[in-house]
Amino acid sequence: MKRSRIMGVTLSSGLGLVSAIPWLLASCATTDGAEPSSPDSSTRLDASGASDAGDADDGADDCDASDENCVTTPVACEDAYWCPVATNVSKFYTLTSVWGSGKNDVWATGSGGTVIHWDGVEWTPTIVPSETTLPIRDTFRALWGSGPNDVWIASATDMIYHSDGFKNGTANWELTPSATDSDFDRRALFTAWGTSPDDVRFGGGSSSYFDSEIMEAVYTNQVVRKPSAAGIEWTRAKGLATVYGLWGPSANELWLIGDNRPYGPQIAMTLHGTRKDDGDVVWTQVDSRATVILRGIWGSSASDVWTVGGNGTIRHFGPNASAWAIVDAPTRANLNAVWGSGPNDIWVVGDYGTILHWDGKTWTESDAAFPARKAKPHLYGIWGSGPDDIWIVGNDIALHHGPRQTGGAK
Questions:
Q1: DSSP 3-state assignment of 320?
Q2: Three-class SS state of 180
Q3: Mapping DSSP to helix (H, G, I), strand (E, B) and coil, where does residue 300 land?
Q4: What is the pLDDT along the chain (410 residues), one digit of tens a residue?
């Protein structure tokens, strides 16, 4: 098949795509409105209130005590459910994603080419090699692995890296040659999901190429690594929407969330996919009943799936469901990620330090030991190895919940 590229829709990998400022906090969120604008998030904090990169706290980043998002009465770690852990990440960078294979093997990625690893004792930065003399400053949002020796990160279609794990105090990151072929339009990638080292899928911005056999433009929004007759190959999956989340309960079933503007009215598009024998996925649109961008998706099973987004939007796809159920939330903050250890232990994180917990009956707010005199950080990623080992990342902060904490309320 002869192909020639005629157009590429490239999305910026800047922070504005993931930093959405919420409306003022309210007691509940039963309806969805237009998602607020997304000014650059410039306030950063660390575990102690001083710069995590080693600078003294001179008060330059202190917030106004009259701001409801300013931490005026800090909570001590022993009294909070979540405690900050030093990351050694500059306050000028933002952590966007977290994933791990176990409690002593956790990865977090973010802006400025940031990739750090937790070995059970401390977070250690790892270097992603550059093919030029300039260091990589991309924002790595897509993060996924099948195990400790198979880890993937990506910022764009030509910036997909693989590592065989954290060994001897570092990680060897290799640029994936097959994904940098000129046949791939460069566009931002926001999410990753897979089932094995040879079955990995990245989602992001949409672009198009001209297919001379069918004589029309073909739009794609996913990059897929999969087995083929010739071995393992990279291919593209068709789609118009900008993909913000992928999750599946099995190799043959998965969900996609995305923003279909300007190609259609579905700002909160959700697609349910089933895999055919040839490996391709057939997608069916499911009404999300939302009018804001959805940012996170996760489920404990095929009959228990959650997705979250702007203005405190929470949707649930339960047993025998044909549509998403609207779920009330105790906030109007933008919600960015969801994860759980089971159907009665679900966590959601969002802007301005928002942390919510589902116990199987209700959503409640959870507290964290944020530094005093700083604005509550925007939180973008969450992952855990179990109910008593969970990580949350955002701005330059990493929050941990573990059995060492005895206080605090969920």
A1: coil
A2: helix
A3: strand
A4: 333 333 333 333 333 333 333 323 333 344 444 444 333 333 333 333 333 343 445 566 789 999 999 999 999 999 999 999 999 899 999 999 999 999 999 999 999 999 999 999 999 999 999 988 999 999 999 999 999 999 999 999 999 999 999 999 999 999 997 776 655 568 899 999 999 999 999 999 988 777 777 878 888 899 999 887 778 888 889 999 999 999 999 999 999 999 998 888 889 999 999 998 877 899 999 999 999 999 999 999 999 999 999 999 999 999 999 999 999 999 999 999 999 999 999 999 999 999 999 999 999 999 999 999 999 999 999 999 999 999 999 999 999 999 754 455 56
Q: What single-letter amino acid sits at 115?
A: V
Give the pTM.
0.85
The correct answer on CATH 2.130.10.10 for the domain covering 61-205+238-401 is yes
Tell me the two tokens of residue 85.
Answer: 């852990």
What are the sequence ranges of the domains in the chain?
Answer: 61-205+238-401
CA angle 259-265-268, nearest 5°?
35
